[in-house]
Amino acid sequence: MISESQIEEIVGRVVQELRQREKLAIQQVNVPATESERNASEVCVLNERVVTLAVVEKLTVRPAELRVPTGAVITPSVRDWLREQEVELVFETSPQKNLVSPNRLVWLVRWRTNMSDEACCDVEMTGNVPSEWYEGADAIQRVHQRLRDEQGSCRLRVVLFTDFPAVAVCELNREKDVRAAACADMASLRDSLTTLQHNVLVLDTRHSRVKQLVGLVSEFGNASP
């Protein structure tokens, strides 16, 4: 039979061992992260074209900065998550990829928009896109004439920037050689290219950032005819 003194001795040893384990756990938690570990947690790069909440929830650490390809679709739930977690969203453009295929001409037109000259230059210079900027109602007429001149050619594609995309699409599609469509994101652009095979892309400059516009122009210019 175990005596009372032996029980106290056993309990004392167990308590001492538990305290040692607790101290070791605290030391492990307080070990400072290495430089590589800190850098890895600061920036996270995703290559997905569509970033959903399921994608970001799989991240093992919360980054300070989340980088995605230019033109990637960010769902509303992900934008809420970014705000809640205080994570900065950065759109990246690969410097090794031209904006538009060399065998394709993308003609940029500005019509009834408050898009700044600086924003126009940013879009134009990103990929050295052949472009002309027009103001006023004659821009629609110029697009009609240009496409008539290029009739039968799949080389030319027109991108029209405007604050009134619905009106622009209606006016553009009055000409039989014009197939215009307004697209706000990559998903709608790809759907439209597949179903309509449009030769004019209308972009809403009121609700789009410059980087998003550049991504849409790139996708439209490089799509197969």
Q: What's the topology here?
A:
Elements: H1 4-29, H2 35-42, E1 43-45, E2 50-51, H3 53-56, E3 65-69, E4 73-74, H4 76-85, E5 88-92, E6 105-110, H5 117-126, H6 138-149, E7 156-162, H7 165-172, E8 180-182, H8 186-195, E9 200-204, H9 210-222
Helix pairs in contact: 5-9, 8-9
Description:
- The protein is of the alpha/beta class and 225 residues long.
- The protein folds into two domains: 38-92, no CATH class; 105-222, Ribose 5-phosphate Isomerase B, Chain: A (3-Layer(aba) Sandwich).
- The chain is 45% helix and 17% strand.
- It contains nine helices and nine strands.
- The protein has helices spanning 4-29, 35-42, 53-56, 76-85, 117-126, 138-149, 165-172, 186-195, 210-222; strands spanning 43-45, 50-51, 65-69, 73-74, 88-92, 105-110, 156-162, 180-182, 200-204.
- The strands form three sheets. It has a four-stranded parallel β-sheet with strand order 6-7-9-8, with helices on both faces.
- α5 (117-126) runs parallel beside α9 and α8 packs parallel to α9 (210-222).
- The radius of gyration is 28 Å and the shape is rod-shaped.
